[in-house]
Amino acid sequence: MIKNVLTGLAVVALTAWSGTAMAGTVDVKFLGWAKDGGGTELQELFKYKVGSSSRETQAGIFEWQRVGGTHVGEPTGLFQTVCIELDQYVASTTYDVIAVEDGPKPGSLLTAGPMGVAKADMLSKLWAAYWGTAHDNSGNAAAFQVAVWEIVYDGDTDLSSGDFRQNYGVGPLPAFVTTAQGWLNSLPGLLDETELVALSNRRFQDQIVSVVPLTPAAWGGLALLAGLGIFRLRKRQMA
Q1: Residue 5's pLDDT band (boundaries 50, 70, 90)?
Q2: What SS3 string covers the chain?
Q3: CA–CA separation, 17 vs 204, rounded Å?
Q4: What are phi and psi of 165, to 5 degrees?
């Protein structure tokens, strides 16, 4: 009986800790485009099509500062994101911290709901492989963002076909679009992943950002909390 109680309480404690790490809000100030070491904004103009509609937008990396919120842990201080919701605008606001597979909310311009686990896994692998490279220059930053949009919005990873695609006619593609396609082509062979979360607001543009996983010390602290809870339960049973 005691063994079952100990196991159950530990599971409850771990579940509660995990929920805290993936819940709550962040209040953020939008700072604009991230910049490279020379002060150049990490963004490029991208031309694309959604169905038969031709559009264009800036593609790159955003920079933010966290100023409050209830979420425990990363993102904190200054941090950078990329967009997963093309049909809304970016703003200084309050975001809910949610699992990537549950975003974007209320749904993208091409989807009625969340992206799902398979696409979230691809984003995690893309981030692990190329996020560092994305900061080398504005072209790589744009390539990273375009690759993210292709994963979120389309059923394939080909920027020249599907519901979401590049729109440069028969001429040569910009170098960043070619780079994005190369990164997308590499996805099946990628193994490493980065832990990500989505920042979601139903009125403003959803983002994804990397987070720092729990440290061994944090897990040790959780075990201690679980132990204290077990001690109290056993004491009550004996009273």
Answers
A1: very low
A2: CHHHHHHHHHHHHHHHHHHHHCCCEEEEEEEEECECCCCCECEEEEEEEECCEEEEEEEECEEEEEEECCCCCCCCCEEEEEECCCCCCCCCEEEEEECHHHCCCCCCCCCCCCCCHHHHHHHHHHHHHHCCHHHCCHHHHHHHHHHHHHHHHCCCCCCCCCCEEECCCCCCCCHHHHHHHHHHHCHHHCCCCCCEEEEECCCCCCEEEECCCCCHHHHHHHHHHHHHHHHHHHHHHHC
A3: 28
A4: -155, 155
**pLDDT of 47 higher than 70:** yes
Q: At 200, give phi and psi (nearest 5°).
A: -125, 135
User: Shortest CA distance to 208 belongs to which of 82, 74, 20?
Assistant: 82
Q: Identify the pLDDT of residue 92.
A: 98
Percent of the chain with pLDDT over 70: 77
pLDDT, residue 109, reads 67
Sign of the Cα pseudo-torsion (165, 111, 95, 70, in order): negative
